[in-house]
Amino acid sequence: MTPFSQRYGPWAVVAGASEGLGAAFAKGLARRGLSVLLVARRVDKLQGLADELRGLGVQAQVLAVDLSHPTAAEHVLTAAQPLDVGLLVFNAALAPRGRFLELSVQEQCAALELNGGTLLALTHGLAQRMAAAKRGGVVLMSSLTAFQGSPFLATYGATKSFILSLAEALWFELGPVGVDVLGVCAGATRTPNFERSAPNGAPGLLEPEQVVEEALAALGTRPLLIPGGFNRAASFALRRLISRRAAVRIMGQEGQKLLPPRVD
Ligand SMILES: NC(=O)c1ccc[n+]([C@@H]2O[C@H](COP(=O)([O-])OP(=O)(O)OC[C@H]3O[C@@H](n4cnc5c(N)ncnc54)[C@H](OP(=O)(O)O)[C@@H]3O)[C@@H](O)[C@H]2O)c1
After folding, report:
1. Segment 12-45, tens digit of pLDDT
2. CATH says 3-257 is which class?
3. Residue 216's closest CA among 55, 53, 3, 56?
């Protein structure tokens, strides 16, 4: 057993584990000796990853579920019931990109449900069990979009502000009962999702493994992590050196560059 697996094992739940950051979290946890319940929609990808994790000497289970469905958290909690879960990583997110009025309400409400409702319900259910055991950890993936309005990612950005605020509050509430909570405000990270939406890359682009290593090292030491030196500096400038209005304008101008051209 590693000190990490004693503190946060023997099982972790990774929501949104089939690729990118979620898969990197699962591998990082397996390397630290944790068994992992892998949750996402694409079962073939989850099964491939589960085989890889078993090769690292831990157990792995897969659960295919659409986390934007209102009953999704219940399904995950039921699957996790027989497991001694000491860590939740909530990585999945829906990020509808586009002009607010042109995106469908349904798509934006699905993002609210997954990034908000499901994240809240799963955190509540698993943290209750961890608090009873007086040990555990919760990693909630937020984003640099959490710190100000993010035009053309408006609903996604608002959900990430919710996640950041929730993580900070729970860090204070749950720390004394033995449950460490960390909000991770990631910047651009080379995941398949990111590469689809921003094929030209972005300044300060990080590999998923770096984000995961920084996050797992930070858990239990602070409420909030911004991975990567470039992101920390950029975030400091946006939050402290210019007005909030100017920060929103910069986010808007950058967001606009990633929109498809208007067909009028
Ligand atoms: N990549 C970045 O640049 C970046 C920047 C800032 C913050 N973040 C945050 O980091 C996290 C991961 O980033 P990412 O978006 O690049 O994703 P990712 O880790 O590459 O993958 C997203 C994961 O979520 C799962 N997922 C998506 N919708 C789902 C649904 N409805 N039900 C179940 N699972 C679902 C996907 O699996 P299936 O498709 O198989 O369901 C996939 O495993 C997100 O919370 C994101 O906000 C990322």
Report:
1. 999 999 999 999 999 999 999 999 999 999 999 9
2. alpha beta
3. 3
